[in-house]
Structures are given as structure tokens and as C-alpha cells.
Hints:
2 domains; Arc Repressor Mutant, subunit A; single chain; 211 residues
Amino acid sequence: MSGGADPQFPLADVPETELVQRAQCGDETAFAELMRRNASTSFRLALSVLKDRQEAEDEVQNSFFKAWRRLGTFQFESRFSTWFRTIVLNQSLMRLRVVKRVGMRSIDDTGADSSDRPREYATDEATAEQSLADTEIVKHLRAETQKLPPLLRDVLVMRDLEERSIEEIAAALDITESAVKSRLARARPMLRERMERHTKRPVSPAARPVH
């Protein structure tokens, strides 16, 4: 066997598309490699929204499970990493809404009958609402991203979802690096403002600072 491959990660050199195809056929090792490649960037995304390491870890883990269940719906219309980070962003936004809801209910439950109510009540109700709203958030995110002007949308997707470097984006679009940064500076707040109309609360920027 020729050298070069890391025995700890035997699929490290396999292209993403092939890994997805294997995973869709039930190959859990291939799916694990996809998750390994996306773990750190997904955690940073979740943390930028939730501002809490434990909650961010929880939602990335939940996103792993959801991605595995939904893998058959992936149509290769985008990179898998882009698709997966959309799931992570959705999960993180929904966690914010659930935490806010449960917190408000906890404050209100001070009446005489509060001791008789199951502690799981608020969480179960919030989980049901989360399940119902899950598809809606993803739909809104996709729709609002598509509504951005193409010049802004392209750089936003390539930088914040596909995690490409400024240099790579400039080369791909045949524009200057300064133009990439300028478009990002316009696209991010525009998308954030659009998403806040749906989440009913400020949405933290998911992207890293532009360097």
C-alpha cells in the first residue's frame, strides 16, 4: 500500500461528491468523513449565532443527525458543505427561538397551579413548534438569499457558506479582492435584515470578519 494517506482518516482524500454518494447508499464511514470535514466550520457558525459553546455543540450534533436522515433529499445542486451549514444555521436560529419561549414561560408559571404542571410541558410544546417551523426557516433562508442581487448573492454564498477565501472568490468571479470585500459588506447586513423579519429577533452575523 502506497504511503501518503492518513490511516486515522482513510477517506481524507476522497472527493466530497463521492463521499455523499457513498453515504446515500448507507456508508456510515463516508458520512462520518463528511461530518469530520465540516465539524469545525459548522461549530463556528453555530457559536456565532448562539454565543454559547455547549448549545452550539448540541445544535451541530443535532444537525449531524438531521443531515443523515435527510441525506436522500440532497440533489447535488450545491456543495454538500453548503447544504449542511444551512441545516446548522437553521438549527441554531430555532434554538434561539425555543430558549426565548421556554424562558418566558418559566417566568410566567408562578401561579398556584404551576407545581402541578409537568416540567416537560414547555419543552415538548416548543419542540413541536420547532418541528413545524423547521422547514419554514430553511425556506425563508433560501428565498431571501435568492432575492439578493446576483452580484451580492454570489460572493455571500461563496464566502459564508462555501468558506472560500477572498482570493478564490476574486479569481472565480474575475473581480478584485477589494470588490469581493465591498460586496460582502453590503450583502451580509441585507440578508440579516431580511431574516430578522422571519425570526422576530436580531440574527447574529454567521460569517467571519472579512480579511
